[in-house]
């Protein structure tokens, strides 16, 4: 049943701690939902300060100089530093932050593409921004029974070199059977066409099955393999008028700092390279349904205690 509207508490920056029926319909129809002012300016500022502190204080001395790659310029990132980052805070470089001879061409705080993947546990301000009443209510409203936060990241999209993210579905990278991933994506700075805002193939979550998944290969390394399990979430109503992926049209999602964007795991979305002078810092974490199968093939394996519950009182 769709949740009913609840008036916002006076101190809340968001219009409500619950999704309205209209917001839920928008999410179900489009596969994404933009919620302006979900975070207060002071929370955004605290998250940005923490990010700048991390960027200026991490050490290069023992860093393997791992670059984050989406597979367009070079093969997907899959070294040990990346594969064991699920319970750590690690720093991945922009591919274009290096000269042809492999030297860093930017100061380190301007060279990092992303920080991940355990901010939701290890960084107090990011932990606080993850385990909120609003996020709990959203997870309940979109149908989670036991939402588990399995990864979190800061994506920096650095000025001039911030890498493009090609069209993808999050459930390809965070596969459960049946698929269940949902992205909570939060702008820490204004995101515009110039600095590489997200764009979305509206409604594609209903016509784009999750056909492949990103796995640890038996022979070692990582790669894609065909999905053998379900390709849509449980009980999903598919759009009968399917489209080829290449025919999809993308709508820009320019948003202000403090905006939360909810992204369905089957939705095709992307972001372009940042050629502007302005960075585009965002924080994102993903939830999966803890009751669905999550197998050993997934590139991201759970910490010893399992993926973190978004809230404790599951029904
Ligand atoms: O922030 C971006 O540019 C891309 C993020 C994204 O696609 C994701 O988190 O799934």
List the keywords.
eight-stranded antiparallel sheet; metal ion binding; 22% strand; 315 residues; disordered N terminus; four-stranded antiparallel sheet; 7 helices; Jelly Rolls; alpha+beta; binds 2-oxoglutaric acid
Give a summary of the structure in a few sentences:
By secondary structure, the protein is an alpha+beta fold.
Would you kindly provide a written description of the structure presented here, covering whatever features stand out?
The strands form 3 sheets. Strands 1, 2, 3, 4, 6, 11, 13 and 14 form an 8-stranded antiparallel β-sheet that branches. This protein has one domain (21-306): Jelly Rolls (Sandwich), CATH 2.60.120. The protein has helices at 21-30, 41-57, 80-83, 119-122, 124-130, 133-141, 170-173; strands at 32-35, 89-93, 112-117, 147-155, 165-168, 182-187, 198-200, 212-216, 222-226, 251-253, 260-264, 269-271, 282-289, 308-309. The two termini are 15 Å apart. 40% of the residues are buried. It is α+β, with helices and mostly antiparallel strands and 315 residues long. The model is unreliable at 1-12 (pLDDT under 50). β8 and β9 (222-226) form a beta hairpin. The chain is built from 7 helices and 14 strands. 2-oxoglutaric acid is lined by residues 155, 165, 170, 183, 185, 198, 269, 271, 282, 284. Keywords: Iron, Metal-binding. GO terms for molecular function: metal ion binding. Belongs to the PhyH family. This is Phytanoyl-CoA dioxygenase. Its cofactor is Fe cation.
């Amino acid at each position: 049943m769709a949740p009913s509207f609840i008036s916002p508490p006076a101190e809340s920056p968001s219009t409500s701690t619950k999704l309205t029926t209209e917001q839920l319909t928008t999410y179900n129809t489009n596969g994404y939902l933009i919620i302006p002012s979900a975070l207060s300016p002071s929370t955004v500022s605290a998250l940005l300060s923490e990010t700048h502190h991390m960027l200026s204080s991490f050490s290069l001395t023992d860093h393997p100089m791992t670059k984050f790659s989406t597979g367009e310029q070079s093969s997907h990132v899959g070294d040990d530093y990346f594969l064991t980052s699920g319970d750590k805070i690690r720093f991945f470089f922009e591919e274009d932050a290096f000269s042809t001879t492999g030297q860093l061409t930017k100061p380190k705080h301007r060279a990092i593409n992303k920080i991940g993947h355990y901010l939701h546990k290890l960084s107090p301000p990011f932990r606080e921004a993850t385990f909120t009443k609003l996020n709990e209510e959203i997870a309940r409203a979109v149908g989670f029974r036991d939402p588990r936060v399995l990864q979190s990241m800061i994506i920096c999209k650095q000025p001039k070199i911030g890498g493009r993210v090609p069209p993808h579905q999050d459930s390809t990278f965070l596969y459960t059977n049946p698929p269940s991933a949902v992205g909570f994506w939060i702008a820490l700075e204004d995101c515009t066409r110039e600095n590489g805002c997200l764009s979305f193939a509206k409604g594609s979550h209903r016509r784009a099955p999750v056909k492949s998944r990103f796995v640890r290969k038996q022979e070692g390394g990582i790669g894609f393999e065909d999905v053998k399990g379900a390709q849509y979430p449980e009980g999903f109503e598919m759009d009968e008028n399917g489209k080829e992926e290449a025919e999809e049209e993308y709508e820009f999602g320019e948003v202000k700092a403090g905006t939360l964007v909810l992204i369905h795991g089957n939705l095709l979305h992307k972001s372009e390279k940042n050629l502007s002078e302005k960075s585009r810092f965002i924080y994102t974490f993903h939830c999966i349904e803890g009751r669905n199968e999550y197998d050993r093939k997934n590139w991201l394996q759970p910490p010893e205690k399992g993926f973190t519950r978004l809230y404790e009182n599951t029904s």
